Amino acid sequence: MSLNILLATLLATALAAPAPKPAPQSISSLGGSSGIGIGGLSGLGSGTSGSSPPLPSGLSGLGGLDGLGGSLPGGLSGLGGLGGLGGAGASGSLPTLPTGLSGLGGLGGGSSGLGGLGGPVPRAAQTSGSSSLGGETASDVQNGVCKPLTYIFARGTTEGGNMGETVGPALETQLKDQFGASNVAVQGVNYPASVEDVVEGSTDPKDTQGSTDMAQLTNQALSNCATTKVVLAGYSQGAQQVHGALMNLQPGQASAAVTFGDPLRTQAFQNIDADKTKIYCAAGDEVCNDEFVISAAHLSYASTDAAPAATFIKSVIQ
């Protein structure tokens, strides 16, 4: 069963159920000040107290779709992040999700929609560029900007903008500290970064949309700015795009490459010297084993590894 059919089936089941009664006042504070309310709680819908009707067998992981935005039809206000799908929260007769999607998280909470596979994650401080859906967008290469260093980044799954919200902007800040803000051109990779593309990124990274776009941006930067040094970087699904982009480039075109939470960490980078590459994989991050189970370790890179990565890049670029 495809993911779209599965989600449609779950929503149809919910529409047939009686509308839940209002939640007790005691849980009104859940969700903090973000306005999401309790929409992102993956456990709601089973085992909770109060008078809400029990969910059908197999839907015990459903919480509430309140975080999706806008008003919902009657009977849907209690559905949350579909947090049990593919994980321990699902029970009953729900089908197993395809390989590579076992970490599919919540549709209701977070800042970027679907949870897992690199998103949603806590927002990093915004740097340069415009903002889209909570993430940064940077298009210096597309705009013909020439600087001594060109930083091209592929964001994680479901992150907003073309730079994302966490690792991309964090590494940008650190590179500007290392090289000087006026010496760094910044460009995000333009690709969907959707859940559906994750499996292709693991099995055929060379031909993904992100990989081909990253390679094209590299060629464009070198064509417009012959002396610029190109740094390729990516987080989670974005790391797959770095591997694929290098397959589409010639040796020496990329001056450095770094990845974070890399599902393809066991595969050597192509067309670049090994000593100009570095993979950051935190202890306990199962995404680095090509198992898309999102943990605190997978969400740690912006705060723990952006600075060391920038230092490494500075050390290999002459």
The span between the termini is 52 Å
Radius of gyration: 21 Å
Largest sheet: 5 strands, parallel
Instruction: Label the structural class.
Output: alpha/beta
Tally of alpha and pi helices: 7
Q: Report the portion of residues in β strands.
A: 5-15%
User: What is the N-to-C succession of helices and strands?
Assistant: HEEEHEHHEHEEHH
| pLDDT averaged over residues | 72
Biggest sheet strand order reads 4-3-5-6-7
Helix content: 10-25%
Tally of DSSP β-strands: 7
Shape: globular
Q: Low-confidence runs (pLDDT<50, min 5 residues)? A: 1-128
Care to describe what's here?
It contains seven helices and seven strands; from the N terminus they run H-E-E-E-H-E-H-H-E-H-E-E-H-H. It has helices at residues 3-16, 167-179, 198-203, 209-224, 237-247, 301-304, 306-316; strands at 130-132, 135-137, 149-154, 184-188, 229-235, 256-260, 277-280. A five-stranded parallel beta sheet has the order 4-3-5-6-7, with helices on both faces. A two-stranded antiparallel ribbon has the order 1-2. The radius of gyration is 21 Å and the shape is globular. Residues 1-128 have low confidence and may be disordered.
